[in-house]
Amino acid sequence: MDAASLERDLSIDEAWLFSSLEELARINRQPDGSCRRVALTDADRSGRDLLVSWMRELDLEVRVDQIGNILGTHQGRCAAKPIMIGSHIDTVSTGGSLDGAYGVIAGLEVIRTLKRHGVTPRCPLVVASFTNEEGVRFQPDMMGSLVYAGGLDLRTALHSEDRDGTVLGDELKRIGYAGECRCGALVPQAYIELHIEQGPILSREGIPLGAVENLQGISWQQITIHGEANHAGTTPMSARKDAAQAAAKVISFAQELALRMGASQLATVGSVHLDPGLINVVPRKAVLALDLRNPLEAHLQEAESRLVDFLEALSVKDGVLIEKKQLARYPPVTFDPEIVRTIEMSAGTLGKPIRRMTSGAGHDAQMMARICPAAMIFVPSVEGVSHNPAEHTEPEHLTLGANVLLRSVLALSEQGRGQ
Ligand code: HGY
Ligand code: MN
Ligand code: MN
What we know:
The structure is a single chain. The chain has helices at about 5-10, 15-25, 40-55, 100-115, 145-150, 155-160, 170-175, 200-205, 245-260, 295-320, 335-350, 365-370, 395-415, and strands at about 60-65, 70-75, 85, 125-130, 190-195, 210-215, 215-225, 230, 265-275, 280, 285-295, 320-330, 335, 355-360, 375-380. By secondary structure, the chain is an alpha/beta fold. The chain starts with a helix and ends with a helix. It binds (2S)-amino(hydroxy)ethanoic acid and manganese (II) ion (2 copies). One manganese (II) ion (MN) binds near residues 134 and 387.
């Protein structure tokens, strides 16, 4: 059967796709419906165990590497370099059921569909689930794929600590996913990731598919403000070194900075911790996490430099000591134009509209683009909501995205870029 007729006849089994998404989402589901499989927790282990069981049912060759990335390989007709279909199954603590999981499970369904129809792809296919994509417990985010792509050395990653001082390498061992395989040993000829958009563009425009051609720059910083603990009832306002007041000014500055820079500048302070955090004690310490993003590297650097100037002035004005630590820093990434075109053509064979777009969220694809041609497929997020249990994509769009993934993978496989 030639490639063209292959594409005409194959389509994924949406029932398995939906039931598997639901089965994974049930793990540690919270009362508000959130999926909570934060990296390297027991819930993450349960999700990993379920994924590995699905891979074994498909007779994939399952490997776990030294940072806990899980790779399932399906052999092709030739011993060419594989095509990798990846994403992640860890979640933020208020996660939806689709972020990451959709791309991994759809990757398995692509292989299930080929097996169901007795079709062997020209080259091997690898489904990858990367460790700690969200980065909410251990930074940086996209950690597993960053180590895989050689952007972070393994030892540094294994020694990273969460807020409680728990060490990542110990957690990897504890959950049984401290693998033996060298990270990045398998360099694919191409990497493709199917993901929900997590933003409002496709949904607002009524377009069911996105061919993601680039991804914006990300700068994560931890800002620690050292003030002076004192009595709330006896310390005059003029005599305070109030870390919380200084933190509030940083939070307002971040919002004003993004609004003043306009265009695509984004700024978020998603986490603030006060010490000692007691009602009648002027806070001696505040720790904030600041997320800055911009599709243009020069503008992201401008935002970072304005922040430095602001913190210097604030430190003098408020009499507090301010420290800054870079938690993650990724320049904007441009994906492979040929894979983007392949994705568009696959959508065309299904007669569905598709639009090129930038990813606002970070993804493992931006790390894999360091070592091989990579691109992404987006499907709409209803109301653009994500990192929230209300995250939703219409079933028909989930099915469509998986079918575009299937056709894109087949087309890439037949193109034989990776001899
Ligand atoms: O932060 C991000 O954009 C991704 O969800 N880790
Ligand atoms: Mn994701
Ligand atoms: Mn996410």
